[in-house]
């Protein structure tokens, strides 16, 4: 779920010096990947000296971890801004990804996958990515709970439904990014819409507003 988050970072205005460094880190990650990332390349993207990069972060691990924290901060700001949106709109926004992504979006998705792969043997990345995952999961969970309370969704197992939606989305991103199967993105979007309307959505005769009464 990081791919949209990385793009969010690029929309930030009036950033501080350190935030500008973290934005440059995102640019360098998209251009060179996690394995090719060096503080020298970050400095080039930033337009500052390598020594200034090391002034803020001594190691590559510290820098990348701080970048994930920065992404998480941007995500949480977006979650807060959308917290009052209708539950279905929140879920659609969170799960949406482009069937015809730009090169920047493709690169951002590749960074997402590379970070997750690296996290398997990097405790610092894994810890911060888990925090990012937990925040996103909480956003989707709250939307489902709000939908149930409002009578828009059936009384489903919230944790199971949250996991299903996130796993379907992440699998779609994986295939679309690594195999360039853009058709999978459109197919998955249709499948998610079908799930939202036919499985999660409340049918008219189950709506509390009509008392659940059936026509005689």
From TrEMBL:
The lineage of its organism: Archaea, Methanobacteriati, Methanobacteriota, Stenosarchaea group, Halobacteria. It comes from the Archaea. InterPro entries: BetI_C, Homeodomain-like_sf, HTH-type_TetR-like_transc_reg, HTH_TetR, Tet_transcr_reg_TetR-rel_C_sf. Keywords: DNA-binding, Plasmid, Repressor, Transcription, Transcription regulation. Residues 38-57 bind DNA. GO terms for molecular function: DNA-binding transcription factor activity; transcription cis-regulatory region binding. This is TetR/AcrR family transcriptional regulator. Transmembrane segments: none annotated. PANTHER family: HTH-TYPE TRANSCRIPTIONAL REGULATOR BETI, HTH-TYPE TRANSCRIPTIONAL REGULATOR RUTR. Residues 15-75 form the HTH tetR-type domain.
